[in-house]
Amino acid sequence: MPFSLRGFLQGVREDLDAGLARDPASTSRLEMALASPGLHALWAHRVAHRIWHSSDAGKVPARLVSQMARSLTGVEIHPAAKIGKRLFIDHGMGVVIGATAEVGDDVMMYHGVTLGGRSMEPVKRHPTIEDGAVLGAGARIPGPVTVGAGAQVGANAVVVRDVPVLAVAVGVPATVRVPHERQSADLMYADPALWI
After folding, report:
1. Residue 21 phi/psi, 5° resolution?
2. For labelling, which of 98, 157, 178, 195 has a CA lying 20 to 30 Å from the CA of 114?
3. Do 98 and 126 form a contact (C-beta atoms < 8 A)?
């Protein structure tokens, strides 16, 4: 896909607005653009991802871009990872997203989240996070599991099996709770352990 300045600027604006909507401490797009390491890491990933897929010669330069972003932001995103629109990584520090991870649109991720692998084989070995999921601080999701759309993973949870759409996963290993007839907004307050 050829580079489009208009598309790039639209993506930046969407990222800034998503950050403002999810971070009550931020007061403006300018503040978000200048002071959000999660957004800086995301923007660096977009550059690295494009370089990664440009040619085989782009692999090393893409890794260098991602490692530079890691040293500046504390967020490590492999250039091959597939990241959707409007991902917001709050605080950023310690986030790791592996090479075969897939992150959907409108995902919220807190610091210390790991989307890691459980295999050394050249296969899909990292998680898939579907649209609108929320991953609490320190959550660990190793292997090719799926966190469903709108699902929530609690702080420090270790998810080793799929989490259904709109479910809540907490604990080590994570216990999955599937809500019955609840609106997704109510899930944010359904389990205090989600935010611990």
Report:
1. -70, -25
2. 178
3. yes
